Amino acid sequence: MTDFPGFIAIESGDGDLPVAIAWSLPDGRIKHTLIQPGEHWLEEEGTSLGDYSEEELYSLGVSPLDVIREMENDHFSDTLYTAGVIDDEAALSRLFDEYGMDPFVELAPAETLYPTLDIGEWNRERSDTFSELGLEPLRPEHELQVMLTLHARLTSSGEDI
Prior knowledge:
Distance between the termini: 16 Å
Strand content: 15-25%
Radius of gyration: 16 Å
Largest sheet: 3 strands, antiparallel
Helix content: 25-40%
CATH superfamily: Ribonuclease H-like superfamily/Ribonuclease H
Number of domains: 1
């Protein structure tokens, strides 16, 4: 069985407000959840929660602390690879800031796993994989499925990792 690198994707609303998160496990499984808004996240009137309502996030999501604990169990002190480092770092910081904590994971660009591909080629491969699988780029669980599929493809075809 192939061990996969850790991948992460975070969907955000206004102001880097994390509303959904997904990360992968070494065996290729994906963990995904909606995130309940932190205590002070919705103080501004009209804060956008992306494609979700406040009710959906509170009823279907888990607390930011539970997300942090679960991620800690899976990836403490790991590097996680993402297609959107800047956006995901900001949303992850917001998640940890809720409890005055520093993130215990480091984020890195997913394309750095494939040194034989330039950024344009990696982006084309990623876009093609989204189309091929019929998935939406803004959904964290879809982003993870694409990165895992692309990783398996690139590493089994002799590309360097």
